[in-house]
Amino acid sequence: MGEVTQFVFLGLTDNWVLEILFFMAFSAMYVLTLRGNILIMVTIVFTPCLSTPMYFFLSNLSFIDICHSSVTVPKMLEGLLFDRKTISCIAQLFFLHLFACAEILLLTIMAYDRYVAICAPLHYPNVMNMRVCVQLVFVLWLAGTVHSLVQTFLTIRLSYCGPNVIDSYFCNVPPVIKLACTDTCLTGILIVSNRGTISLSCFLALVASYTIILFSLRKQSAEGRRKALSTCLAHFMVPDTSFSTDKLVSVFYTVVTPLLNPFIDTLRNEEIKNIIMVISLMRVKVRNQNR
């Protein structure tokens, strides 16, 4: 990155009392994020009756949430605890966009999965078999990698000769390119075009899928509509990933969203909720027998 190799973050606040409070709150939220998403992944992997495309995608969503949160939160906690708030931006920027793009694409795939399951149930086993699901996940990681490489390359190709202070708690494209010593107009257009194409395409696909699903539900029974809506709402309620530079909004998408996802998926899914409850009861029973 030219003469500048590291950037300095201003962080969330310079008030030491707030730093301690934020550290305790975000540490607890990060631990809950890890535990909640790992619990969903383990439950799905080790429960044969959940070996379906929907739960396969759900376990991948939990994995992405863990990765997405781990890209920014540990470094943020370090910044709240210590005065040193420097980082080499390239790695964090790359993985931030990789997992953000992967999540958007996965939500789109999950919408397509529900569309086929509800609107073409007879063809579902052939259209969405596990081989196809694995191929779709491979494609989303490949697309996410390409997107992230483009964003990273367009950012690091600029010349950075100072200043190197970012008014944020993590490394993202918009605040970084503001520090470039060269004209960033063309680079900014390319970056926004790249992100906008993916975001708009996925948004239109999501809206189209769920619109068709809602119209098709009119022909189903009340119980069928309830189950279908419950599943679709769980997917639609998962907050979309944002690349916002605003601190408050960024905290929501990097800290709160990965925490909410497992609770949304679990509380609105009777099968996972019942299995987790059974596992919990079995653990309590085994613990009592060992005493």
TrEMBL record:
Gene3D superfamilies: Rhodopsin 7-helix transmembrane proteins. The chain crosses the membrane at residues 16-32, 39-58, 90-112, 132-150, 198-217. Its main location: membrane. GO terms for cellular component: plasma membrane. Residues 36-238 form the G-protein coupled receptors family 1 profile domain. It is found in: Cell membrane; Membrane. Keywords: Cell membrane, G-protein coupled receptor, Membrane, Olfaction, Receptor, Sensory transduction, Transducer, Transmembrane, Transmembrane helix. It holds the Pfam family 7tm_4. It is a multi-pass membrane protein. It comes from the Eukaryota. GO terms for molecular function: G protein-coupled receptor activity; olfactory receptor activity. PANTHER family: OLFACTORY RECEPTOR (PTHR48002). Belongs to the G-protein coupled receptor 1 family. This is Olfactory receptor. The gene is OR4E2.
